[in-house]
Amino acid sequence: QFSFAGQWEHPEHTQAVGAMDLGGASTQITFQPGVTLEDKNTSVSFRLYGSNYSLYSHSYLCYGRTQALKMLLASLHKGNSSSPQISHPCYPRGYQENTTVAELYNSPCVQAPSTASPTESLTVTGTGEPAACSAAIKELFNFSCGTNQSCGFNGVYQPPVRGDFLAFAGFYYTFDFLNLTTLQSPSDVNATVQSFCRRSWAELLGTYTQDEKYLHSYCAAATYILTLLLEGYKFDEQTWSHIHFSRQAANTDIGWTLGYMLNLTNLIPAEGLQHIKGHQPSLWAGSVSFIVLAMVTGLVAILLQCLWKSK
Description:
The protein has about 300 residues and is of the alpha/beta class.
């Protein structure tokens, strides 16, 4: 905040709020840890408005919503790559779509089997099986920490989560669709997601008429988010309540543009600005005298004109 003394001041008794972003290609987590970071590659230090911050931050490429679901579909295909039929446990029962090997493996996040022909047509059929869906999504992660005693997933170091978090972008939009943005326990959220995943494609079309383009993927996305938060980022029953799924912060949409703007405002000096005169005092005095003289001359001219008209 900016004080009456003309200085940026850090509000008292405040703590940095963590941030979790779920984009299309990657997901990020950033927060102020309660321990000394063991891996300096995950440490970010900066100064904002006169206060110093030391944060943990990491970005997982290919684990954004779009690419994660593409990895899931590719994994299901590789499980039986000799068949053009793919059974998808996260898609609603009765849903079907067609794609090709080239379309499925058009991303650096997935690698096509050497035996697959790019022009081969594939038929994806939903089966609506929540348990099988969850198991398939967990196969996308490596939850083993290896030499790191504390980690997120895929062997990446992460200290225990701490403090409040804002979960935005894909986190918010997916959970908002399922009415899960209000404070609920992980078990309640999981029950709601599983109930949604059991619904057939015909049921979903009859209930949701405005979002047909992404309707088939909400079960997969919600199950993925639950897995990412609980087993990837290591939230639990206690820390889950500190996650706030939100589209805005202080009535401002959250996104990379907001962060970029805040980073640029960091260039504003924390100290009070000096009052600088643009000219020498003698020049200022001359300018003021000229302005006063011009005003007096104008008033005299107006007075003379009025007297002339009255004669």
